Amino acid sequence: MVHGRTLLSAGLALAFLAVQPAFAASEEDAALDLAPAAEAAPAARAEPGLRVFVEGTAGRLTQRYGLPSEDVRRLSLDLTWQFKPAAQWRAVLSNRLDDIHPAEQGSRSTLNSLREVYVGWQAADGQWAADLGRVNLRNGPAYGFNPTDYFRDGSARAVTSADPLALRENRLGTAMLRAQRLWEGGNLTLVAAPKLRDGPSDSSFSPDWGATNHADRVLMSVTTQAGSNVNLQGFAFHEQGKGAQIGASGTALLGRSTVGFFEWSGGKDAELLSEALTPSPRIITGHRATVGATFTLPTGLALTAEFEYNKFALDKAGWNEALATYGLEPLGTYLFHVQRRQDIASRKAAMVYASQRNAFVRNLDLTGLVRYNTEDRSRFYWVEARYHFPKVDVALQWQGNRGAAQTEYGAVPGRTLVQLLAAVYF
Q1: Structural domains of the chain, count
Q2: pLDDT tens per residue, range 75-93
């Protein structure tokens, strides 16, 4: 049996599968402008300057299958620094240091994540822009699963949050050259991300270039505003050793309080099970897609529902066949591989995400989500209550896995995790 906390982390990461801090207008900024509920984590909207906070958690993990309960704790130091060395230039440094106990199986207790370090330039007329360095480029308006987020593979070095927006914010960027041509209502973006290493590093303070730059990749995207209430994006992507994909995403204001969105990507990629368990993965042609909507009630409660599809993942028959062939522990390896790729492990899934600011009292925010595997009906739950003081956040979090034995979430040894969180901002 795989270690309880290890499989819990895999289940959590799959369950929680956001906006580029743009010097020039980015693709995701355009898409999310129509979605008032889809707000980025604080760092994504940071103004030029230095932002530092220390965050600590302490909690209790209960497990199934006769495994003992565990005390869990984490201490993190998060730094983001943006400054302008000249009128048309800016520099960005974003780093996070996490000390996690107990450590995940095969991982270090202390992990440093050099999320971003790059310089950016924009022409005086605002029509051209370029960035060079490690950039966390995030595409796609969906919350739980982003088929057009082509640089997500390998970027989650330390999974420390259940919030899907924070997961995209805290991941490693990719070393790249990004060039943009901008015009009113749209832009054209070209990205080249070279291979720097063969694979990820487990060293605590490694910049881990192999995690994010393990293959030569190129991306071209076009963003346009198709009317006052519709934004569309098109993508062409190629990865060395796998092949080409094309994709599209969009958002539309469907009413005064409803925003619809979709993402689709199709082409050649590795079948996830063979990629996780064999040295020569099977390359197939398939599709990934997400469609959903965000509803904002007059009370300020924002509800997002999305439905997800992944041809490269296991359907119910494939899961049962793999379970009979390999057993549960190799399927734990499959779940971890999906976590690393920030993909989904089931052919079809659904998610509901809810957030309420100033719930009951001012400065109290409630957030929660449910992840549902429609193939085997297993579920993941997460709820957070967070109170904001002027320089301190305090939160109580609860999360749990439910489902029949040997389903995606039912097989996870970790049943429930309850923890307290405190963050101090400087």
Answers
A1: 1
A2: 999 999 999 999 999 999 9
